Prior knowledge:
Elements: E1 11-15, E2 22-26, H1 34-49, E3 52-53, E4 60-62, H2 70-82, E5 95-97, E6 104-109, E7 114-120, H3 129-140, E8 151-153, H4 161-172, H5 174-185
Antiparallel strand pairs: 1-2, 2-4, 3-4, 5-6, 6-7, 7-8
Amino acid sequence: MDPQCDDISVALYKRTAAEPPVGVVHTYSEHAGAAERVVRIAAAMRVLGGLDDAGEGGAVVRFPCGAWHANAAKRIFLEAVKLDRSQPLEARPLAIVDRKTGQTITAAGGGDGSYRLLAEGVEDGVPSRAISAGRGMRKLAQLPDSDEDVAFAFACGHEHDALVGMLLPRAVNVRDTLREEEQYAARGLLTAPGSGE
């Protein structure tokens, strides 16, 4: 349900026949402004998550790596729907200041889809928030486990800086993020035609 467009139902569908896989932002609503809203959400996904335009009037998106990161796509979609329409679209930085500790957490890319989180301003007796951010990032994007708590990697082997920048603030407080997403998703659920649900 999109509260910024009279609670119309919007959804992100993965087109299974497409190669590489694409996501289609769609609504069945005939509400005035619904078509424009779908295009705006897809545009926000391209900026916030670093996705590419896959055509069809701007409502179809794909990851530039050619893979489909399902959990990441879901989170990019939810973030794009929640984004205040009056705010400018811009990618988020690869560094945040943790409100609880004042530590600056930065994601450094390794060039092969891997990232390492660094925390600056860690005081004696206060654990590094980079550790919880690393765990949170792996959970939010469903990335494979790592030998290092502060590291994570995308299996496709490509950089996803915009996506990492978008997820980083949420990864630090992953429990709050998951709770918020559950509440947001409970507002409405749209299933694809013929899905049997």
